[in-house]
């Protein structure tokens, strides 16, 4: 399901359409949550600051701007992530063409090496640029990859248990998601290992309304084994800015679409 | 003396109170013993404040390193080695099971199934994937794993051996003290696999912890065995349970109270302290034997035993006090060695010796007066008859005659052996290796041999480079920012200062990060002119930040590359891994994977982005084992094939010479860490410390001897046997090429305290007899009949008392047992044969024995 991304994804976006009416069908629930987390509005931008911390308090930070455009609601999407800090990775770009019915296309541009690399479709559950987020958390996990089961709809949250259809491709044995009924945003995800103990947690720390859309502004992933965590903060979010196809072309990797990356006046 | 007499009187009049007192003391001490904490961690050979140890701990924290168990799987029967589907399947299962074990640092476990592979997938496409998430099913898949590993220098010869026959699982563990338990659990899994592979476990932690477990067993066996041995021996000499009950009681009480004292104070029982009972037992029985045999000689049946006892105790007190003091001084001198477990051992044995002295003087009288008259009569029957016709007696008399007749020859021999010994000592190889504490056929020794045969080494050392500039970077940047803003208005400068104050952080990089964010925001909402100013400050800060990332700079990296290349060609280093290895590998894969691209990136940005690419893997945190997040410090991981301190010392010397030829860049310092290095450090401290202990014990004992004999020549003479003995034994160690290791080091000082006893008794009796006899030949003959026999008997009791150590499964115990027995034997022999020969050549015996003012009441009994 939507899952992870609560973070990034959520980052910008959130569906406006979450009704308070109770849902019974788990597939409906995960679909709506997926839309709320990853498909808010038609497009959007946000500036993100990632603070990566280890158990001993060692910290590093990364700063980037993310652009997103939906090709179809709940369907294919484009993402472009342009790094601005630290200075030695400035203008490094990660771009994803997300496909619901096929493997995603992913590119990486490394300006210091003047290299555009395609990243193999393979495994998306690798670290996103050294953080505790995974690439899959950025663009969202395909709903069809898991079996979903509604555990509870008591109280404020829908609690959904998700089991991978192909356990060989992932490192978890299952994960549980808490979806806030008020805005359908997944606000907590806990990943369990083969013994059922939780080793990884993704949680939303703050949500604000951006252009009337409930939007995640702060989230955190915690690696419970290593004691490390990454906190992501989103600022200067804006929806429906009119991103076009050209923004997400291979050409943009070497020549960044500055007008879109620029911080919007107010 | 008054106090002494009153104490002896009390003991004889109130024996019951003495028994109750000793029993209570022993019971109190025995209560402490269940709290025993075994400690076999060689790191504890250094105090927690020792600088190298502190740095070692700091490095472990800085680079998030854990102690590891290395599990090896070997298949040398299959033509594909370990790269066949069955072998890899079993390895995979084993690794999966280990990952779930309590106490394993799961996220850092390294095995083929937990590491990443970076590969080319068509032109321009790079693939990050698990190396072996699922075990291969076909040989072709297994071959793919082989091809992938062979391309990755960080894994090749670390995770799989160069010959392809062995694979390793590096199991980082939370605590070294868990190693033995984990190794048992791993064994259980291995047994359940029914695998074709053969499995081995190596690494210092498992060796150390296993040693602790076996040591415990060892103590439980050899201490009682030593007790039994002494019992049997005394039975052989005295043939009387009545007679030997008292010494056994003294010995048991001494051991229990001393161990209770040690444990009760909260000290851990280290290898050395575990030998305390074995040291104390023979020492403790000797004094009581003196008292009893002398008492048996003097006591007339039917009379009051108190009178005889008083006499015996009266004249034995002084010599026994002196022998106790000298023995205790020998052990206590170990306190001058800066090795905490050795200090604790020395001080407690010294305390035990005094305790034995004290217990002998209260318990033995109490024991004797408690005997019924019938038993007392039987005691009389068992008085020790010194038969001249016995084998020992005959031999000793012959030895006495021989030493006089051949005294010149003996002196020449002494000089020859002395010189040879000095030469032998010069040959001594100082070396230790905790693994050698196991016997050669121990499974850990075998595992060590097999694993280090296949792999680049299971012994770790870390060479840590550190750039100091980062420590001053913060104030420098603050000064720069303030200087750049002097032209701005007061409001701006105030804002800047408040940003700086708010950015306060421990590390420079985080501080700079905070400033950059603050300047960015300030610029966004400022007027155009101020915005430009903020931007300038932001750039300045980023610049400073980039410069502070020292080990991303091409010049720094290329220095590390040179150092690493130098280490790699050293025969003593199996393999090195470093940030440079990682950078070159990832850089090559980013650039198409061909070998010419296996090089360092040209610029800092290129290096940073290469690292960023690496971090897009399953194990981004592996990077932090090689470099700190602020890039101011980097660690080269050396894998060594041998845990010998000598080999590590050689590597250290090689690196020192490299630094002489290729000086470290300005502001960069280098320092060692890792268990192999720590072992070298404590060994050095031990060797130096032991020399101090030996010298100080020598001086102390010499002074005591001079005071005791009130004669400098006799004092010097009394030091002769032990000096010759120590020279000879250490010379022997040098000749036969036995490494000078921890147990050998400890021997020297304590030998001194033990073997001087012989000389004290011998010289004291010789002097007394000569004063009475006035004839040298007659004196020697008489000494060889009486005191020599007692000396020999004591030497035999003490020497044989240590022999149960020879049956130990652990080498340090065997070494100590063998050499102590040898030292006792040699020093007794030297005392009996050499001392007369040397004295034979001193012309004025009257002066030597200060005959004019002879004090007839002074009688020393042996």
Keywords:
heterodimer; A: 266 residues; mainly beta; outer membrane lipoprotein receptor (LolB), chain A; 13-stranded antiparallel beta sheet; 12% helix; disordered N terminus; B: 862 residues; alpha+beta; Multidrug efflux transporter AcrB transmembrane fold; 5 domains; 4-stranded antiparallel beta sheet; 3-stranded antiparallel beta sheet; 30 helices; 65% helix; 7% strand; disordered C terminus
Quick summary of this structure?
Chain A is built from 5 helices and 13 strands.
Your description of this structure?
The complex is a heterodimer of chains A (266) and B (862). Chain A has 266 residues and is mainly beta. Chain A has a single domain (3-261), classed as Clam (outer membrane lipoprotein receptor (LolB), chain A). Chain A has helices at 8-12, 26-38, 135-139, 251-254, 258-261, and strands at 43-53, 59-70, 77-85, 93-98, 105-110, 115-119, 146-152, 157-164, 174-180, 186-192, 198-210, 213-223, 228-239. Chain A has a 13-stranded antiparallel sheet. In chain A, strand 11 and strand 12 (213-223) form a beta hairpin. Chain A starts with 7 loop residues before the first helix and ends in a 5-residue tail after the last helix. Chain B has 862 residues and is of the alpha+beta class. Chain B has 5 domains: 1-49 and 240-385, Up-down Bundle (Multidrug efflux transporter AcrB transmembrane fold); 66-209, no CATH class; 388-426 and 710-862, Multidrug efflux transporter AcrB transmembrane domain (Multidrug efflux transporter AcrB transmembrane fold, Up-down Bundle), CATH 1.20.1640; 446-467 and 551-675, no CATH class; 471-548. Chain B has helices spanning 2-13, 15-32, 51-62, 85-99, 139-151, 179-193, 204-238, 241-264, 276-298, 305-332, 340-370, 373-381, 391-405, 407-426, 443-454, 469-484, 490-503, 508-524, 528-548, 554-568, 579-590, 604-614, 645-661, 675-709, 712-736, 742-773, 776-785, 787-802, 811-840, 845-848; strands at residues 67-74, 116-120, 125-130, 166-173, 198-202, 459-467, 575-577, 633-640, 668-673. In chain B, the strands form 3 sheets. A 4-stranded antiparallel sheet of chain B has the order 7-8-6-9, sandwiched between helices. Chain B has a 3-stranded antiparallel sheet with strand order 4-1-5. In chain B, a hairpin with a 4-residue loop joins strand 2 (116-120) and strand 3. In chain B, helix 1 crosses helix 10 (305-332). The relative contact order of chain B is 0.11. The chains are: A mainly beta (266), B alpha+beta (862). At the A-B interface, strand 2 and strand 6 of A face strand 3, helix 18, helix 19 and helix 22 of B.
